[in-house]
Amino acid sequence: MQDESEEFEEPTEETEEDESVDSVQIINPHDRFVKAAMENRDVAMEFLDIYVPDEVKAICKLEEFQHIKQSFVDADLREHITDILFRAPHKDPKEPPVFLYFLMEHLRNNDKLSAFRDWNYKVKIVRFSMEDTGRQEVPLILSFFIYNGKSEFTAVNKIVDLIAVKNKDLARKMVEGFEPIDLQKISHETLMNRLWFPVLAIALSEVDNPDVVARVHKIAYYLREIERTGRGHELLEALLTYMLQTSRAEHQEALVQAVRTSISKQSGDRTLTIADMLVKRGRKEGREQGRKEIALRLLARGFTPEEVSEISGLSLDEVNALG
């Protein structure tokens, strides 16, 4: 019996046509048939007319739908799942189009994670829409799951029902959005009787305050109380690093002095060692930046790289790197 692999050693022209991009991507009969049928505009229009809710038909021009020939299914699942995406223009030209997304699973069983995949695919469609239109808007996306299994469809169809918590009101909080925390509006009552969080909240909310001494004084009480716990060294170092990095160079000495008067000498010595290192590093970076700016101006005036190197103090390689 001839080895079947030998049949493909010398492909004919017909075989090469079968191995087109299309045939490689469409690798099962279910996928091929569904895509061919839904690309037929008459089939698709009837399908949409049956299943698209009237309230959606009222806001879009369904008869002008377009078939988006792009799959949003993960590559490793495309053998088992077919997806079809239609886009219908909104009746208001200022509004983004409406997307209608159809999934068909060829495994013909109840996959309990179908709702999760649906959620994931909708996110991908939103990204596609933003990139396609250049508009930072989230369009309306309706999704439909085409089921052809022998048993009754019993899988959940809402992501909220997949969230592993019995209290579904809590689960909806995850799906419906996030809780904004406006640091500029945190009340005194929120910070009262708390020790650690106020350092984070005040330091971030006061970052644009040019009065560095006032910034330190607002958290001085918390710094002293944290110091008494014996557990605040890392936080103190991170805070000082942050405040130095977000302060103008001419304000850094005042900032360091304000911190010194707010904490004990023992903690202050340790922290100020870090502060001195940061200040010196900042000065060095500032000087280097200044030299680069001088070098760029000289190059713009026609000085040779060698002349610029001698004047600015930069190496010839550094000057050439400035382009």
List keywords for this structure.
323 residues; alpha+beta; 4-stranded mixed β-sheet; 53% helix; extended
Lateral arrangement of strands in the main beta sheet: 1-2-3-4
In percent, how helical is the residue content? 40-55%
Strand content: 5-15%
Largest sheet: 4 strands, mixed
Poorly predicted residue ranges: 1-26
Secondary-structure content class: alpha+beta
Taken together, the total number of domains comes to 2
The 3D shape can be described as extended
What is the CA-CA span between the terminal residues? 69 Å
H/E series, N to C?
Answer: HHHHHEEEHEHHHHHHHHH
Our count of helices gives 15
Mean pLDDT: 80
Oligomerization state: single chain
Q: What's the alpha carbon Rg, rounded to whole Å?
A: 32 Å
Q: What's the count of strands?
A: 4
